[in-house]
Structures
1.
Amino acid sequence: MLTRRDLAGLVASALAVPAARAGDAPGTQHGVHDMSSMPASWTGKEQIAFLIYPEFTALDMVGPHYMFTSLMGATTHLVAKDRNPVISDAGLSFNPSMTFENCPADLDIICVPGGSLGTLAAMQDEATIRFLRDRGSRARFVTSVCTGSLILGAAGLLTGYRATSHWATRPLLPIFGAIPTEGRVVRDRNRITGGGVTAGIDFGLQLVGQLRDREYAEGVQLLAEYAPEPPYDAGTPKRAPSEVTKMMSDMFVDFNKQAEAVGRAAYAKYRDG
Amino acid sequence: MLTRRDLAGLVASALAVPAARAGDAPGTQHGVHDMSSMPASWTGKEQIAFLIYPEFTALDMVGPHYMFTSLMGATTHLVAKDRNPVISDAGLSFNPSMTFENCPADLDIICVPGGSLGTLAAMQDEATIRFLRDRGSRARFVTSVCTGSLILGAAGLLTGYRATSHWATRPLLPIFGAIPTEGRVVRDRNRITGGGVTAGIDFGLQLVGQLRDREYAEGVQLLAEYAPEPPYDAGTPKRAPSEVTKMMSDMFVDFNKQAEAVGRAAYAKYRDG
């Protein structure tokens, strides 16, 4: 939405929406809200990076990305191992905005989305883990959505921290010395981990509220029309009908076995640098 | 998640997840759930297309895309005017999977995401409107999220239909002969329009329930861990604090003026083919 771009620093993107165009009467504005009435504290200069990797789950990233790109003054990057398109688990093809090499050294937020087999591959990828360990050692917030916490865990970034993951993989967190904790968004010091997929939206909006203030975040929520009305009540293992929970839990048995083996090996390899 | 790919026809993507690998003991499976116990009605063959265009809002598309790619047997396309990367309003770069020319002629679902200035440009783009009019004339479901309904409207596809849009642009729908209607997801015959941005998730899950059944959709909801917990209660103009609603409404005044002018011109131009 236009107004989201206002919030996200429309003024800066003069190319897309010039405040005035050639031939305009003096003072003409094109969709640029008068931002002079906004409190100075509403503008920041955060550097935010999402890691993306083959077969990640796009919604894990795009939910919080919407929220973070609503932070006026912030810069948000999509970081991958190289410049090749990164294909999500559902077949969406993304072009990364930068690679590990040119990602800013000091990040305000590093965020790792989840996935399934691609997540296991990322947990085993040395360049990916080294990147996360490096940026994670200095980032103001080290965060994940869904099974992204397994990658943070493999990188040794959740050792001794309370954390969550997708409901089905949360029991794996002790492999990495993390403490599995109930909650849609779990925060322990500067580690913030979200539950499965859609939890990223709640995580992102919560962090917007912290980085700006409540009124700002409420504006972003209204812009996103985030007044969810799920058509069914099956979003957690406890709330879903028991046969649905059983069906979906059964589907994870084999994946979790693989994830446990991969996780133990990666954590053993990377925990000491 | 792996299990989502199960649901989405993991069996077919043998390359990514071979049912057995060289060197495995006979009968070994890697993450492939036994799908023989699933009802045959859980597999379809829908052809689904999302229109993408410069400066669209990614979350409008990625929310329902998650849901639709959970439909076993369905094929989901990202269709653009040409093969160039399409940059979203928040800077995400997507590679389309096909162009207007090679998009299947008969679609089960055509879905148009919203945006702001890019949406106005799409409303004025002849190739885009012709594509929508053509596919929309035969599609089983003609759908939109957020201000995507303005594009459907410009293409003459909402004339005489009840519809919604982002809360701020819903009052513009009569320009296109549509009847603005309250509701997070509004359905009138085969037209389904969602409200702003995050409404696309509810829209997508609802349609999954219709195309399969309730239990299937509940499984998808559980996989997405879709049990939202918005940190604030500001997702609609009525629920947000009045000063927040005023601030955000003010931001739309200028955009709505532009949208009205563009909409009237496009509708007059395209309504009669």
Note: The first helix of chain B runs from residue 2 to 7.
2.
Amino acid sequence: MTPAAAVPHGDIIPCSMTVAPFSHRVRIYWEDTDAGGVVFYANYLKLFERARTEWLRALGFGQQRLRDDEGLMFVVTDTRVRFVQPARLDDELTITVAPVAPPRATLSLRQQALRGDTLLADSDITLACVEAGTFRPRRIPNAIVGPIIGALAPQPPGP
Amino acid sequence: MTPAAAVPHGDIIPCSMTVAPFSHRVRIYWEDTDAGGVVFYANYLKLFERARTEWLRALGFGQQRLRDDEGLMFVVTDTRVRFVQPARLDDELTITVAPVAPPRATLSLRQQALRGDTLLADSDITLACVEAGTFRPRRIPNAIVGPIIGALAPQPPGP
Amino acid sequence: MTPAAAVPHGDIIPCSMTVAPFSHRVRIYWEDTDAGGVVFYANYLKLFERARTEWLRALGFGQQRLRDDEGLMFVVTDTRVRFVQPARLDDELTITVAPVAPPRATLSLRQQALRGDTLLADSDITLACVEAGTFRPRRIPNAIVGPIIGALAPQPPGP
Amino acid sequence: MTPAAAVPHGDIIPCSMTVAPFSHRVRIYWEDTDAGGVVFYANYLKLFERARTEWLRALGFGQQRLRDDEGLMFVVTDTRVRFVQPARLDDELTITVAPVAPPRATLSLRQQALRGDTLLADSDITLACVEAGTFRPRRIPNAIVGPIIGALAPQPPGP
């Protein structure tokens, strides 16, 4: 992540690069691995989903409640994952979540899986908001858009 | 399976032993294995569930339709699994399903995973019928009980 | 769990009941659920495995290291699970691990899944120790048996 | 798929469009779904993997044998998946596999999940060949490249 200090005055700052992304720690268990001795590729999408769920919860939104109270669900419409290094049993990974733009019809996130400073997998994930029963597209509620835009905003320089 | 010929006259024959159990073929893929190089223990329950679904379908009951039309679901209330030999990538297994008694409040099944004649895992599974939304117990519909009892009945001797 | 104070003098105390069992917190994510709206039955075995792994780690044994250094793996040979109440998305569960006897050829554990004080699933799990490549049975190393027996021993009364 | 007849003389034909892609049928079971009532997004990568395995097997390459005999494994290095429509319990899907170019350092595939003619998910998958133990890159063996290029070649016009 480029520190804010490195960005010259007057430049447009890609918002998500000015704040540390949300991160969530996960442990690799037997269930995550395959006979190749490493984490099965599909399972990174599980790890990314867990981190997104915790990110939404940290912003104030439990998904079960979102469904019960508003009849809404987030669904993934597009994923791109680049697998860089394999993760193994007992590894402890950091999974990051960073919105890459203000949410509109969809919500675009960048997510990474890291072991220490080593990048293991890097992803672009697009979510949409739908009605729980019918999967018809719905606007992302303002109550959610607000905190996400807040999370995107450049933070004041530290001491 | 004890062949019918080996059962002395007058004995009570456990019904499920007089007919070949239903069987379903499954292939072992990377997703099923773990870093031990073999099928992860929890995944046998997935294989058993697939075979039960195909068994119900063969009896005339798709579970999505059972839910849509009758508002009913089967849930597992008890499982016992003995793991005998590991299964590996690319193995083709036979998963059997045999009711062990006429269904009453619950439905008791015996299920096995075999590679050829080699027993890999052996299980006793108990299912109950519940209302889809509330999980309140419901009677197993007669339309399902009938075919299962039919499957239990000793078949007439072949030519 | 019966508190130690309730056990009369001179009785033989089932060891595992005199100490609080090891427990591990897990969150229920989308990956754990199925179209019934609850946790898929096979996935409880994943939660139980995670808790066992953390229990072994707390006793000083990482399984990847056990495999690298000693060429040993634990495998499950028998499981019995009773499913009492369904768990749902966003639930936070406590998964317990308690050895029920000193380990010999096998290691017998009782594991439960609880939401608060509500029992959701209750299990008896038997593990054996095998050579990583061949799956041939091996004695559980004394370095592991010792701490488990220590965990079984009644603890001195608190202040 | 554009029929070969529609391609004017002299044009460069994207090879994969001139032959029907390999396809593999899969059934959706409870294990594949989540509490949203549809197939969990990560599980499409399992379905794609199963189809790739069957495609390799149809070309003459079992992956367990590839590993035992040659010490080689295929690993996924990049995936892009667009989720178009949800799949549901009991659906029977067709999963396609089509190489999009002659294999070089990597093997690029297009894979789709369809229910009848309805596209549910569309993916671009890149595989690399590695040494099983070390994950060091290795050339894709000619014995595999040959049949894949053969599969890419335009087929002679039918009767």
Note: Residues 1-18 of chain D have pLDDT under 50 and may be disordered.
3.
Amino acid sequence: MSYGGIEAGGTKWVCAVSDGADELAAVQTFATTTPAQTLGRAVDFFAVHRQRLEGLGVGSFGPIDVHESSPTWGQITTTPKPGWEHTDVVGALQDALKLPVAFDTDVNAAALAEGQWGAGSGLTTFCYVTVGTGIGVGVMANGTLLHGLIHPEIGHMRLPHDRVRDPFDGVCPFHGDCWEGLASGEALRERWGCPAYENSATEAWALEAEYLASGLVNLICTLSPERIIVGGGVINHPGLLERVRVRVRELLGGYISAPEVTTTDGIERYIVSPTLGDHAGVLGAIRLAQLRALQ
Amino acid sequence: MSYGGIEAGGTKWVCAVSDGADELAAVQTFATTTPAQTLGRAVDFFAVHRQRLEGLGVGSFGPIDVHESSPTWGQITTTPKPGWEHTDVVGALQDALKLPVAFDTDVNAAALAEGQWGAGSGLTTFCYVTVGTGIGVGVMANGTLLHGLIHPEIGHMRLPHDRVRDPFDGVCPFHGDCWEGLASGEALRERWGCPAYENSATEAWALEAEYLASGLVNLICTLSPERIIVGGGVINHPGLLERVRVRVRELLGGYISAPEVTTTDGIERYIVSPTLGDHAGVLGAIRLAQLRALQ
């Protein structure tokens, strides 16, 4: 038996089938357009594999309703993405495919996969941070993906913002200069007038390192992760990860007495890149389906 | 059989004995002086009750080492409190009393007690925040007190700090203007030149509401607690809790789609006062001992 997984991102969806290990038997990627069209393409993909599927997992952009007892479980809720507010993702898939569906955030799914097969292996409390178009964080806390009122929405934390150095108001439609509003790929593009991958301005990346480090420091103070895995397109800028590590140590100021955050060697093993690359999200979605079946 | 508990605070220690319910059979409170003297007074207190004690729990100011496999487990580590760095609290108590000792932060202990008998009853993910001399937060995540690299040190988060409105540099010896550096009772005393309870300046409390709300917004984005319990002397200032609730809703801006943080009624039940009062810490310490014995 196999499981299906969807990394339902705001830019693209990745659909895949697997027997539950970290190799994919079939993969398809397509752009996120309207809910009807995007869900339709996912249904078409899984219909071909339907007979061998035991269940489906979805790691979705959000915010989403993750509480199975809620009448709106399985929906995307207040997203700023046009047309996607209150989309019943799980309902549409269940109706069309007649399969049990597990549902969590895209970043919680990626954290789950990195914990099972990647950079979070053997850990019980860690974070998976993605810095791409937006900023998202998945959280494994004491061995379980973190849910509460809803789920972590760490891209929307408030951080120090020195308007003398950076008068930019931020791009978050809800909060302006929250973490995502100041430091996402979209924020970089708006502030500097070009995509992040074309930006070579020294000040742009000094500022980016500052904001990413501030955000990670708050993660460290709040969740006390055993490791932080940082992926997404923006963090791949040459030298950025190294600058963030240096600045995190400086900002912590020796207060947290652990070699992971007080030594050069330690922090290289503490703030790390993902090991599953682009497939962490969809692998995690498959793992969500598998865990649900094993319950 | 009974259990002993110590709320080992930076200002005072509370020692108590209980059969494991939320009533205390004996209590003694004394000022935190030197490690030797303070630990000695605790040992003297429990020695009287030694025969009926099955174990001892300690909820301590920190940072502390909470990992039982660590060679420095049971110690206070990098505290700014003079004389208390690297104090082996658990070792001293075990040696003198020959009892098993459970050890966590003072605020994690208080969260445990509020979850068992108080405002966190029935919840699996919630926070206990204390705003007193310092700011501390205990975190229950998915039903377990949160530990990772160390434990939450949420008072040391970085927050927006508008130096035009508030040029004060903050009082944290490690970070200056972290949350505790800006909004603790000590910060209020330093900034305004009088103890918080004597301060009636409008701007003082408007600023305090702003900082407390910013910090709680970050807690909500990061941990997604089902409820936030806020205690400590500072929050008792008339009207402050109400202002914080209003400002939290404003800062969230409707992004998190849950009535708990979008409605007036909801937020009154979401950001609440503790129900165990001054004894939450020591009751939680006793519960730590009981849980350890039941393992």
Note: The CA atoms of residues 13 and 174 of chain A lie 24 Å apart.
